[in-house]
Design goal:
Elements: E1 60-68, E2 74-82, E3 85-99, E4 105-122, H1 129-132, E5 138-151, E6 154-163, E7 166-169, E8 174-177, E9 180-185
Antiparallel strand pairs: 1-2, 1-9, 2-3, 3-4, 4-5, 5-6, 6-7, 6-8, 8-9
C-alpha cells in the first residue's frame, strides 16, 4: 500500500545528490528516539542511526511525508538501510489535525499513522517492528521558524516535534511549504 503523494524529496531514487543540503545530518525518524541509535561519525556500524559499515554503505533510517494544505490527506514513507540491505515502507495518515500550541512554529499538526506496509524489500526488512508499531499512534509536528534554505523553489525550515508535551527541534529534520506540506528527516 504505497498511497497518494509519496515523497522522496530531492533524493529521487536511491542516490543522494551532491547538493543535498538536508542529507548531511543523522537522527532517528519521528517517534523513534534513542541516544544509542545516533551516528558517532567514526565510520563504524552504529545500527539504525546512520553509521557506515565496512563497505561504506550509509546505514540508518530516513523518512519523508507529504500533507495536503487542506489537511484532507497525507502520506509517509520510511526507508531503513542495514548491513543486510534496505527496506521501504509506506502508508497514510488516518487523521490530520491542526494544533496551535507550538510557539516557535509557523503551523503545526497532529498526524495519526495508518498501517505501514512494505513497498520494497532489498534484504533489509527483518528488523522493522519499531516502524510497524507506529500504526495507530499520533505524532505532532510543526514547521519551525529557522530557515534551512530553499530547494527547487520551496523554502525549508527546521522541523519541530512535540514530545511529552514539549516542542523540540528534530535533528536532521526539515519542513517545507509548497503545493503541500513536505516534512521528513534522517
Amino acid at each position: 500500500m504505497n498511497p497518494l503523494l509519496l515523497l522522496t524529496l530531492a533524493c529521487r531514487g536511491d542516490a543522494e545528490p551532491e547538493d543535498c543540503w538536508y542529507c548531511e545530518d543523522s537522527s532517528s525518524p519521528a517517534g523513534i528516539d534513542s541516544e544509542e541509535e545516533k551516528d558517532t561519525g567514526k565510520g563504524e556500524d552504529t545500527g539504525k542511526g546512520g553509521g557506515k559499515d565496512d563497505t561504506g554503505v550509509q546505514e540508518g533510517d530516513t523518512w519523508s511525508a507529504e500533507v495536503s494544505l487542506d489537511w484532507s490527506a497525507g502520506s509517509v514513507q520510511y526507508t531503513r538501510v542495514t548491513e543486510g540491505g534496505s527496506c521501504t515502507l509506506g502508508g497514510s495518515f488516518t487523521a490530520l489535525v491542526p494544533v496551535e500550541d507550538c510557539g516557535d512554529c509557523q503551523f503545526a499538526a497532529e498526524l495519526s499513522y495508518g498501517a505501514l506496509t512494505v513497498s520494497k524489500d532489498d534484504g533489509g526488512c527483518e528488523d522493522i517492528a519499531d516502524l510497524l508499531a507506529l500504526e495507530g499512534t499520533t505524532a505532532a509536528f510543526g514547521s519551525g521558524s529557522k530557515s534551512l534554505g530553499s530547494y527547487d523553489g520551496v523554502e525549508y525550515f527546521d522541523l519541530q516535534q512535540r514530545l511529552e508535551g514539549v516542542w523540540k527541534s528534530v535533528e536532521g529534520g526539515y519542513s517545507g511549504l509548497g503545493e503541500s506540506w513536505l516534512l521528513g528527516g534522517k
